[in-house]
Design brief:
Elements: H1 6-22, H2 29-32, E1 33-39, H3 50-63, E2 64-77, E3 80-91, E4 109-121, E5 124-132, E6 136-137
Parallel strand pairs: 1-5
Antiparallel strand pairs: 2-3, 3-4, 4-5, 4-6
Length: 138
């Protein structure tokens, strides 16, 4: 039996996306992620616990400026919240193997489609699975 409602879980996901992923309030990681959090699709060599969340989000905010995230879908079934979203930003640093774009070659604007599945445990994220599309120039 889930300890939170579907509506509470969807609200948690929206807060995570806006406050942490988009706006970069890294102080919220421990609030959003359970002590035993496990990222089941972490990048090779990346820690799978909360430390990995800190690392990935700091990397994201170092590589991209003007981050905006558009949520296409956000649904909850039981204790799993699923989202489809588009992350957009301006690349200002190395990003997943893509070198820094030269200012004369374009805007540096990128986007990528992301699907996240988050298991909610005791009101915080306990598990994560993701599918990330390619980085596209826009």
């Amino acid at each position: 039996m889930p300890s939170t409602t579907a509506a509470e879980n969807v609200t948690l996901m929206h807060r995570f996306i806006t406050d942490l992923q988009q706006n970069g309030d890294f102080t919220l990681v421990d609030e959003f992620f359970h002590d035993d959090f496990a990222n089941h699709t972490a990048l090779p060599g990346m820690p799978t616990g909360r430390e990995g969340v800190h690392n990935l989000l700091r990397y994201l905010h170092t590589a991209l400026a003007e981050i905006q995230i558009e949520v296409i879908h956000c649904i909850c079934e039981g204790n799993v919240v699923a989202t489809t979203k588009v992350l957009r930003g301006r690349q200002v640093g190395e990003f997943f193997g893509r070198g820094v774009p030269e200012s004369s070659s374009g805007s540096g604007r990128i986007e990528m489609l992301i699907m996240d599945f988050m298991e909610v445990v005791e009101g915080r994220f306990g598990g994560h699975w993701a599918s990330v599309g390619p980085v596209k120039d826009v």
